[in-house]
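hey so i finaly got around to running the thing on Adenine phosphoribosyltransferase from Allonocardiopsis opalescens. pasting the sequence first so u can double check i didnt mess up the copy paste, my clipboard has been acting weird all day
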Amino acid sequence: MTVDRAADLGALIAARVRDVPDYPQPGVVFKDITPLLADAGAFGQVVGAVVAQYGAGAVDKVAGIEARGFILGAPVADRAGAGFVPVRKAGKLPSQVIAASYDLEYGSATIEVHADAFTPGERVLIVDDVLATGGTARAAVELVRRAGATVVGVSVLLELAFLHGRERLDALGGVETRALLTVG
Ligand SMILES: O=P(O)(O)OC[C@H]1O[C@H](OP(=O)(O)OP(=O)(O)O)[C@H](O)[C@@H]1O
Ligand SMILES: Nc1ncnc2[nH]cnc12
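ok and heres what it spat out for the 3d tokens, dont ask me to read them lol
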């Protein structure tokens, strides 16, 4: 019997991510990952699946995007044998930063990384929970590249295809976008 592990994991994610209508504003269906995080088995499988996309040792740093990208990105970095770099919302990092601004499904924001977070040529995997319009991930790619490092990919738990984030990342060129589950 053939077991489709990707389909199994997709079904598990679909079962553990809760839709919250009209949050944080009317018309938005918010994808709440907290039930998945609270399930030890599901959380572990998700982290393992992202690590397996590239294999341990294939990336030097994992860049996790505040806030939910921290929750996934830090254990991915640990299991992949990589360092972790926090990509933070503006004004939170203490030392010299580089910044990028962007729009997302429900507003606009600025993210920052420390200017010395990456060594030129380092292989960086960007991790977040949701890819929606792609504004956040695109800004993160821009920051990593401006810091002189190489983006090997963007990995997310959940892609909202109807918001076309993947196309925005594809337009940058050289970015491999992977989602454990794509909806819409
Ligand atoms: O593809 P986009 O349209 O850019 O949207 C995706 C981003 O939106 C959410 O973050 P949010 O800014 O809500 O921050 P949070 O993780 O702190 O809740 C999510 O965690 C992604 O980072
Ligand atoms: N609908 C959504 N749910 C969760 N996070 C998001 N980020 C952008 N859009 C989102």
